[in-house]
């Protein structure tokens, strides 16, 4: 995870006071570097590009400081992402260097050719990457500034213009926030030609080809859908590959941690955002098969005091935990945690119970709003609260020493996001099937797939990265997506099917994932219902029951 900040200005007139350097350092605490490029265009205007990059180093033996600068050409890269593979070959070691060489090669092969050729070569190179990213790249040979996000928008990049008219690109808006910030759309590469036009010729290019196929719209030719047992095995394989990529070879994994908690156990280096629901618990169960038993795993579970639900807390200390214990996600997390302990023996699981009093929520309201900006709705805030405090990872380990605080040292977080869109886990999928059968279900799934790049992952990235941690999404792996989209609908969902598993009837939504949980021994988890994070953690409607999620926040 890295922090990017880039300012493009004419005659070096940018308002540098707006640089959120402290927030950039929170995202990337391992290194920070500044770099600038100044040159004159054909109209004799002096253009300056100022870069700041901070780095959270998770791959390779050494910390690689950014921005990366090619001394020969002056080309510069700010990279915030993970290139898991390039042209099908796994990237070992530091990926930012590999990406930089790939982009430099694209620049060199089109040296002396018109700008469209350089842009096309750059896009072809970028399409070879698999993994989440946001970037800003200055191609000095062609005087081009290019920037963008991966097609799923898994990393944050926002843009604005300051009071001087300078363009600002950043991982974070900073504060005080203004209304001029917008998310950079995850729909292609944005290019600014800097050679001659006074208005800095701006255009974007659609990369055109996504790294996964269109949704399979085939419908079953009979009332009873085919058996989906083979799909369960296929999902297990692609999900295991996705997890193996994301939880192994993390910088520092090969050396024992020096940080030990109060009862003598090593802190975990992998943490899972853990509601106890189906999606995250399957991840936990499969990570158990990948990591050595000597490594503990943190399960981060957050619960809030919500005055709308709980009213005023009683002063009696014996009552102090009840609002948190009654949160739906706390109840589910404890149940799934106990099942993990039974099935995954020999592993230390740290169920980190993160209890957030209402006073603490209010105290952090300003920074949470700044981090999630430019999103500004009640629902954004309630989701951001949950992700912000969960990723901070400070709580008490369930079953550990009472009232002794535990701070998760894990810098890699796993999220179960994406499973609902791929496997039909939302209530609207069930509604679509009830109204229009398999055709309605397929149409609803297609809407979700097409909106994946419009999800609020940039907002989530800004909120969680504030703690110097990187969130990874195993269900949004390109190979897993390719399999899920190519599979027919009846191999993913159980709508219209008969009871299975010795008479037990599983929820039809995400049926293939439920059957995988069952296969892996997590039979109680296989029956868990879908619950939105803001309701499970009780961050929704904290200040009034009549507030709608789509309502804009007041100042």
UniProtKB/TrEMBL annotation:
GO terms for biological process: asparagine biosynthetic process. Keywords: Amino-acid biosynthesis, Asparagine biosynthesis, Glutamine amidotransferase. Pfam families: Asn_synthase. GO terms for molecular function: asparagine synthase (glutamine-hydrolyzing) activity. PROSITE patterns: GATASE_TYPE_2 (PS51278). InterPro entries: Asn_synthase, Asn_synthetase_domain, GATase_2_dom, Ntn_hydrolases_N, Rossmann-like_a/b/a_fold. Residues 2-195 form the Glutamine amidotransferase type-2 domain. CDD domains: Asn_synthase_B_C (cd01991), Gn_AT_II_novel (cd03766). It comes from the Eukaryota. This is Asparagine synthase related protein.
């Amino acid at each position: 995870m890295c922090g990017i900040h880039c300012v493009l200005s004419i005659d070096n007139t940018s308002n540098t006071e707006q640089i959120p350097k402290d927030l950039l350092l929170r995202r990337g605490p391992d290194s920070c570097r500044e770099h600038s490029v100044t040159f004159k265009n054909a109209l004799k205007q002096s253009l300056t590009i100022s870069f700041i990059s901070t780095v959270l180093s998770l791959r390779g033996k050494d910390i690689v400081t950014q921005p990366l600068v090619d001394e020969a050409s002056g080309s510069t890269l700010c990279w915030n992402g993970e290139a898991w593979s390039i042209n099908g070959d796994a990237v070992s070691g530091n990926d930012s260097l590999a990406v930089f060489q790939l982009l430099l090669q694209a620049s060199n092969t089109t040296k002396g050719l018109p700008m469209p050729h350089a842009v096309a070569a750059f896009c072809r190179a970028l399409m070879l990457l698999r993994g989440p990213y946001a970037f800003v790249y200055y191609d000095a040979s062609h005087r081009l500034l290019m920037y963008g996000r991966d097609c799923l928008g898994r990393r944050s990049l926002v843009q604005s213009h300051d009071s001087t008219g300078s363009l600002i690109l950043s991982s974070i808006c900073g504060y005080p926030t203004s209304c001029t910030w917008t998310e950079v759309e995850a729909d292609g590469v944005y290019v600014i030609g800097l050679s001659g036009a006074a208005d800095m010729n701006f255009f974007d290019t659609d990369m055109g080809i996504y790294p996964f196929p269109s949704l399979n719209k085939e419908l079953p030719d009979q009332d009873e859908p085919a058996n989906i047992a083979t799909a369960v095995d296929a999902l297990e394989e692609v999900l295991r590959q996705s997890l193996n990529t994301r939880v192994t070879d993390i910088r520092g994994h090969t050396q024992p941690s020096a940080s030990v908690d109060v009862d003598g156990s090593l802190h975990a280096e992998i943490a899972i955002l853990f509601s106890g629901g189906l999606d995250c618990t399957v991840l936990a169960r499969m990570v158990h098969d990948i990591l050595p038993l000597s490594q503990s795993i943190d399960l981060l579970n957050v619960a809030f005091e919500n005055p709308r639900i709980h009213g005023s807390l009683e002063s009696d200390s014996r009552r102090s935990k009840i609002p948190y214990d009654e949160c739906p996600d706390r109840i589910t997390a404890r149940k799934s945690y106990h099942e993990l302990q039974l099935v995954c023996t020999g592993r230390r699981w740290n169920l980190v119970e993160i209890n957030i009093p209402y006073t603490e929520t209010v105290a952090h309201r300003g920074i949470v709003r700044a981090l999630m900006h430019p999103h500004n709705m009640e629902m954004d805030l309630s989701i951001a609260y949950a992700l912000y405090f969960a990723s901070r990872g400070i709580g008490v380990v369930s079953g550990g020493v009472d009232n002794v605080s535990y701070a998760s040292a894990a810098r890699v977080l796993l999220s179960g996001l994406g499973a609902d869109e791929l496997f039909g886990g939302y209530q609207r999928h069930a509604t679509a099937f009830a109204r229009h059968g398999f055709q309605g279900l397929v149409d609803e799934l297609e809407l979700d797939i097409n909106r994946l790049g419009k999800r609020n992952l940039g907002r989530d990235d800004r909120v969680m990265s504030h703690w110097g941690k990187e969130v990874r999404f195993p269900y949004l792996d390109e190979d897993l997506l390719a399999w899920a989209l190519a599979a027919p609908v009846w191999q993913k969902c159980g709508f219209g099917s008969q009871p299975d598993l010795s008479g037990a009837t599983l929820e039809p939504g995400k049926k293939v994932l439920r059957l995988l949980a069952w296969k892996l021994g997590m039979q109680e988890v296989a029956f868990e219902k879908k619950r939105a994070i803001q309701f499970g953690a009780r961050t929704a409607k904290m200040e009034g029951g009549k507030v709608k999620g789509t309502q804009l926040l007041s100042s």
